[in-house]
Amino acid sequence: MRKVKAKKHLGQHFLTDLHVAERIANSLSGHMQVKKVLEIGPGMGVLTDFLVQQPWELFLLEIDEESVEYLQEKYADPAVKIIKGDFLDRKYRTLFEEPYAMIGNFPYNISSQIFFKVLEERHHVTEIVGMLQKEVAERIASKKGNKTYGILSVLLQAFYDVEYLFSVPPEVFDPPPKVNSGVIRLKRNSTGQLACDEKLFFRLVKQAFNTRRKTLRNALKPMGLSEVFKNEPMLDLRAEQLGVEEFVYLTQQLEASWNQ
């Protein structure tokens, strides 16, 4: 079969190391007994080759026309469903009404966007195994107190247990990226809904990290802090010093102060 040419504008870097591919595929655990698996950007199917050996109901979502044609020729089995589409397009994110897992060598130029979209689908997406730029992977898995800890860390860890699994060097890709890669696994936790206004929580976390060097008292000023809320001792800290529970608490206090 003719190989697919990697396209720079799509951020394509095809994994060539079969050992790494197998390790990524085997990292998918089937958390919460999920059976449906959506692979994002399968390219030439190096991960898919290992996924088809497992008892998943497999869906491949690929935006590149050339890759779609290649995959259709490679996987004639109707059990492997190939869909041309973009995960960032809402109509493709809601392929399933029931829970599903996600896996993929995510394009580095849109990996953060993919995870923000996952947050919108958090009641359906039970598990994600993704390879992405190491810096972004470390940020998502980072704990409070670290410089890499940020908006995605807090928002994703509110709903998922996150593990940084292993690093991947550039030379196992064609073409090699200019950065190292990292593989992470996210498993949906037991939090159905946060104990606060979730839209306000998202807004507060983003505002807190937009000026992360400032104390929260100064960083959150644009949100309109009441005189009562200004006395909250936690506002003397910086965003990176707070975990999910502390951000939930702050959201509760901010909302309560507006109602006084």
Q: Could you characterize what this model shows?
A:
By secondary structure, this protein is α/β, with parallel strands linked by helices. 32% of the residues lie in helices and 20% in strands. The chain has helices spanning 18-26, 48-51, 65-74, 90-93, 111-120, 134-141, 151-157, 198-210, 216-219, 244-258; strands spanning 14-15, 36-40, 57-62, 81-84, 100-105, 125-133, 160-168, 173-174, 181-188. β5, α5 and β6 form a beta-alpha-beta unit. The protein is elongated. The mean pLDDT is 92.
C-alpha geometry: elongated
Q: What does the main sheet amount to?
A: 7 strands, mixed
Order of neighbouring strands in the sheet with most strands: 4-3-2-5-6-9-7
- Judged by helices, strands and strand pairing, the structural class is alpha/beta
Order of helices and strands: EHEHEHEHEHEHHEEEHHH
- The radius of gyration over CA amounts to 20 Å
